[in-house]
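Re: folding output
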Amino acid sequence: MKSKLLFLMLFIAGCGFSQTVNDYKGVVIPLKYDFQKTENQYRLQTITKMDLQKAGFQAFYANEVIPSEFQDRCSLLYVGVVKENAFLVTKLYITFKDCYGTIVYQSATAKSREKEFEAAYSEALNEAFKLVYALNYTYNGNTNFSSKAGITAQSLQVMAAPTVVAPTSAAVTPIATVPVVAVPASNNAGTASTTKVTGLLYAQPTTYGYQLIDSEPKVVMKVYKTSNPASFMAVKGSIQGALVSKDNQWFFEYYQNDKLISEKVEVKF
């Protein structure tokens, strides 16, 4: 009975919060939540971005170059994922905060009994986002992001040349999502080490973008659609990077030992 009452209270609270998320233009995703040891551990940031976009939000990683229309940091929400301590179960809930750190929305706790960490975190996070979907978010055009007396707005760190977050393990299978990743700035390409991938690759459409196959046929690379048709999130074996178009040519770019590597790729779409 107590658990049912608690869930009802959280649901009512969620409904109250849901009246305000529509006031914000988009959402910023941190590169690491408090309980994570490394950036994008268990690919939770990738999952978060995919789920936010499915829910209707415009979402940006904290190290992305954010368009000028979003430069008012108080027009954005800041998503967080919080882990609750529990035995033999993974429990997570989602928060949206404004630029002053005030919680605008908090989901109920979602849980997973999967034993593997990555599967457990992924399942719990996706379950929590089902409550976010229920908000039916639509930006209402609000432009009145008034300041709060005596409170300083939090800084929004924007990096000019963000790096692509690498997978935590070579054994991780990329999630079939439509995430948008920060593509290394083109002005770095001049100093990149450039090699050429031999052989023509053929692009086969998939639900998330394309898989690039060779003449065997063997899947050489998987690429994921972004909002920019000239750039894709790309995974080649255990390497995660970006497939970008420059001067009508395609390049697979990624970081290796803090050095930008650019591989020319011949692709037939």
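--- second protein (sequence, then structure) ---
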Amino acid sequence: MEYMSQEGYDKLVAELHQLECVELPQVREAIAEARDKGDLSENFEYHAAKREQSRLLGRIRFKQRVLENARVIDMSRLATDKVQLLSKVEMTNLANNQRMTYTIASPHEANLREGKISIKSPIAEALLNKRAGDVVTVRVPAGILKLRIESITL
């Protein structure tokens, strides 16, 4: 079961709709055009379009499975006393006093540019169920980080 925000769920539904209703028909049309050009055994366009169709169908099946197992979290029922999924956590790196803010998100919503880290990442796993003021030690590929949780919001 995958828990996610309403925003993440809606985004996934929109991506699936785009794949099924726009991209897949385009690929099927490309296959039909390539098939009309004759000998399929040496037709590069046909084989490329078939590979693209296979890739698209795989992505569609994956997104369908994610949506089948998705559960949207009711934001009004979340508390801000400890770190959990969809919490926005402001913390300080104690090594260099640099502040950072991340939202703990489902793996399908994670996007570092948007400040969303996966709940399965080392930092998020270390932060889970901790409270404001707690200091956590995290082993990351670059070494060990000591982080102090400054605040938790939604």
